[in-house]
Amino acid sequence: MLNKVDDLLKEVESFNGTTLEETENFRIKMLGKKGLITELMGEFRNVPNEQKKEFGQKINVLKTAALDKVNSLKEALEDAADESGPKIDTTRPAEFTELGSRHPLSVVRKEILDIFGRIGFAVSEGPEIEDDFHNFTALNFPPEHPARDMQDTFFIDDEIALRTHTSSVQVRVMENSTPPIRTVSPGRVFRNEAISARAHCIFHQVEGLYIDKGVSFADLKQTLLYFAQEMFGDKTEIRLRPSYFPFTEPSAEVDVSCLICSGKGCNVCKNTGFLEIMGCGMVDPNVLENCGIDSTVYSGFAFGMGIERITMLKYQVNDLRHFFENDLRFLNQFKSAY
Ligand code: DAH
Q: Residue 270 C-alpha to ligand 1 middle, in angstroms?
């Protein structure tokens, strides 16, 4: 009787059904109501008393082995069937995945860089924590200039401040390269100003710089006209008004014809027909010299614009604070922008 159990155990161990049907038949043969194991268990009473214990243990081992074998074979065979058959319902509608979008300031920043990139301007960046030399002194700010005042600038100590404009990057570029230089420098700037619909203590600028032999004001004007028409449409006109910046001479303020009324006069342009978009000028020879460039050989122009300002004009956003609040109702409106 014990041998019979051992033989069955061997049979169980060596069984390797290759189909579900074969495995099920094996289960019935072993464990079914009239199966071999069930039958053997029925013989328990015929086993001599001294063998009953061993017989009982062996038959339990056999039963467990048979069950384990059948279950694991079935599982493996079912898995294999899963993989071979078409288990993906290709007719089911796709799950909706919400796509993120670029922030409007990133959209416009990229657009500005792309526009200048097409006429050969490279991109350069500099540190947000800047020293007095790069933010002010090299840019020809007289020591008593009000922009150095505590009111406007976040000073870290006497020498170090958060940069108040990206013009500091033009100094770094001029120090580290030889003309011709054609570069645009985007970045975050900081000013100690109260937050309102028109001002913020953190905002973004793009600075532009072109240095070469014989660069003239006409080059500046043509470059700015190209930019304005690429950014706001090819009917856009520009107007330059004399202005003052320590680092440029002569300096000008650049206006574009009003995007709403095309220059006829409306609320947005306060009936002037024009909207201010940036400052610009011919790089002051002092600045060239401060940065190690021979001002008797080279000349150049520079310009600087606020990305918020351009974005507000382009998309008619009337409150600068929208850019910093991360309200999805605002941001979602820029989903289609690239
Ligand atoms: N740095 C100026 C500002 O923060 C902007 C600017 C004006 C930059 C004229 C220039 C420039 O390069 O020529 O308001």
A: 24
Determine the residue of 303, 305, 309, 310 to mutate for testing ligand 1's pocket, defined as the one with the most ligand atoms within 8 A of the Cβ atom.
303
Distances from the Cα of 265 to the Cαs of 130, 132, 231, 233, 238, in angstroms? 41, 42, 21, 18, 15
The boundaries of the domain holding residue 45 are: 2-84
Is-above-0.70 flag for pTM?
yes
CB 300 within 8 A of CB 288: yes
Helix (H) or strand (E) holding 170: helix 167-176
Residue closest by Cα to atom 13 of ligand 1:
280
93 assigned to some structural domain: no
* Domain end (from 56, 84, 112): 84
| Tens of pLDDT, residues 200-244 | 999 999 999 999 999 999 999 999 999 999 999 999 999 999 999
Atom of ligand 1 nearest to the CA of 281: 13
Question: Which tens digits make up the pLDDT trace of 242-255?
Answer: 999 999 999 999 99
pLDDT grade, residue 338 (50/70/90)?
low
